[in-house]
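Q: Two folds, back to back.
A: First:
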Amino acid sequence: MPVDPVNPVPAAPPATRMAAAAVRGLLRLPRRTKRALAGPAVHRDGNELDLDAQLLLRITRTLPRPEPNPVTLRTQARRMAAIGAGRRAPVRVDDCTVAGAAGPLRARLYDPGAANALLVYFHGGGWVIGDLDTHDALCRTLAYTAGIRVVAVDYRLAPEHPYPAAIDDAAAAFRDIVGRADEFGVAPERVAVGGDSAGGHLAAVLCQRMRRDSGPAPLLQLLIYPPTDLTGKAESRRTFAEGFALTRTDIDFFDRCFLPPDLDRTRPDVSPLRAETTAGLPRAVVITAGFDPLRDEGEAYANRLRTDGVPVALRRFDGYMHGFVNNALAFGPAVHEVATLLADALSASGGSSTDPGTDSGRDRAATGPSNSP
């Protein structure tokens, strides 16, 4: 039974509300009108870019591009997240604190009511931007739709805190939450991990670290378009290097902020795809986007897990770009589906006969008409 949030979302500034209303109006236009505004259909690597994604991309290209510095980008990320949040799911929300590697970290608990599992969530943003507020709407949806408690962790960001600070924080926070599982109303063995983009990278590395150190094993891992090979050799990094939300320039900037220049990027604790084996890691739900430079390495990691005997549900949204889960206003049905896949994996982890593994038929791609609200 949903309850009113303890921490209501602060009122957005008038300019943000106006921008959200404008986007909502554009998305409700007739398909023919949206096509005229967006331009000819875009095809790449056998996929067609979703019409709403193309329309929003066309609009954002007309806006001033912020200076590539963390402070400016963090401000922009908060504004864009507020514009694309859509209607936020009604769950109870409480701010809390969890342990980090160098001291306490801010965190936020999302409680849908009755739940027997908890997801420790790490936000995306290239290890440089993002916070509890940028991913508030997504965490609410995951909690409400999947019926799982969610603890979002505000780990330290680069360049102020470069590698391995974020990974160390993720590991410390996970261990702390498992140790305090009764406070969060779940059993210690029912604590999962997940994240999008850089947060997905943290979740993947954390799972490998827990296995290496004989730490508590996460119940499962939710990896949303994760970078898994930071050597940058995946073909999709070249195919979608320019023009589709996350560019090569963006990736290079985030890497420079997060990774020391002399770091060996082939190390498994940097590039989890490079691990000698992934056998024994938790069940995984892997989400990718068809027009994302990180697509191929995310899918390669899913396939590697499967090869090593780990149950995997892999879902590619063919027409979408990197970052779509942070825009429920435009891509709400897809965000809901991600949460449903998480719920399915939780059921399987609890002993359900349905196993989203290699032979489950779970791999599929999103096709069809554009998702409009």
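A: Second:
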Amino acid sequence: MPGVGGWGGTFLLISDLNNSDNTFLVVQPDEDDPVWFASVAVLDEGGYEIVRRDTARNEHEVTTASSVNDIARDLTIWMAARDFPGRPTRQVSEF
């Protein structure tokens, strides 16, 4: 999903979800076989289901939440730690 724009873009995308015609969103790298994704879906009883999956790190988490602000913040932090095609990998140096 190019151009999501960090927390603000994620917040707007989640805020636009509804129970009728825009019930979920998925964010993943733009590649044929992405190793990670995150999704947010509107729940019938209110709130949202959040799924985070990263096969490279053997992570799969399903949670529920009601605060769009909290979901956007948490997903922005989580996605920032993922690998993106074309983005240089981070190197940690010990001094």
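Q: And?
A: The longest helix spans residues 68-80.
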